[in-house]
Amino acid sequence: MVNIDLRKNKKELHGNKKIRVNASLDQDTHNKLKKLSISCDMTKTMLAYEIIKLAVNHTDIIEHLQERYNKDDRYRIVPIKENGKIQY
Questions:
Q1: Which of 22, 67, 70, 82 has an alpha carbon within 20 to 30 A of 58's alpha carbon?
Q2: Spatial separation of the C-alpha atoms in residues 16 and 12, rounded to whole Å
Q3: Structure pTM?
Q4: What pLDDT score does 6 carry?
């Protein structure tokens, strides 16, 4: 079996200026994040970064969130796949 380390070092992840986002989690979500981060051998912060990056770059998740929470269609975004990347 081939084991590939997909984790990136901090320098690769934060080529641009770091932006701090403080999320307040309920206890159940925190416990799940903690267990998953241990399973993936990464910090909770790093795992949260990967999850957020996945969410904002996945058209189905973007659509789901907007269907559920968007209150004003003027602010609805339309994700477009351009050169293999999601733009909006």
A1: 22
A2: 9
A3: 0.75
A4: 58
